[in-house]
Every structure is written in C-alpha cells, then in structure tokens.
Design goal:
Elements: H1 7-17, H2 19-29, H3 34-55, H4 61-95, H5 103-113, H6 120-144
Helix pairs in contact: 1-6, 2-3, 3-4, 3-5, 4-6, 5-6
Length: 151
Amino acid sequence: MKAGITRTETLLGLALACTSGAGLIAATFLAIPLSFTAPFIVLPTAAVLAGIALLGRGDHARLHVFARLILVGAVAGLLATVAYDVSRPILRTVLGFTFDPFRAIHIFGELITGRPAGDTWAEAAGWTYHFWNGISFGMMFALVRPVQAHC
C-alpha cells in the first residue's frame, strides 16, 4: 500500500490551489483588485504547485503521492474546463441566449491588466486566469477525493 498524504498536507494543497477563487472573492467583496492578487498571490502559488509536482517525482513517497494528486487534478481540471468552454456556445445556440458566454473571461483580463477587452494582453491574461481556475478546481477536488488506485 502506498503512503497517503496527511490532513495538513491536504489543507496546504487546498490553500495553494484555491487562491484563484480567493482572488475573485477578494476582488468582489473586499475591493482588492485582481491586478494585485493575480501577480502577487495567484501566480506565486501556481509556481509553488508546479514546483511540488516536479519535485514529487523522487523517492519521497508522500511527496510523490501529493504531486501525483496535483497532476491528476490539473489534467482533469483542464479537460473539464475545455469541455465547459466547448459547451458554452452550443448551449447559447440551442437555448437561444443572446449574451456572450465568455464575457467573464474578458472581464478577468480587464481587471488583471487594466487594458480594455479585446486587447491582446487583457485577453491572454483573462484566458490564462480562466484556465488556471479550472485547473486549480481540479487539483482541489483531487486532494479532497483522491483516487488511491491511480496514485
């Protein structure tokens, strides 16, 4: 049987992975702009998670399990986000909605960069933040509900 991760390690992983959602909450309810939280909180924690995933390839069993959960969650979150994005215009057409199903992504970019929607940097920032949200939600789910057979 492989070593599992502790509750403390799970909570640490959740704290790191939830920063993109926390950034949105901080912007919405605490007036802390995404132009601050994205580069100074979300980006560094994403780098920490990536570092853990890369370092987890060694012989340290618990670190390996932790890293594997993060990687499995990241892939699942990315695939779910892509599926969600593919379904948006389809649902818009089928249900006859008139709104832009990707408007929130444009808003993310504006809030992060201060540039208008449609600006290349704003769009890149918005889409990056959107995909990181999906990836981090997958990581959180994998940490809370690990599938031991795959770790």
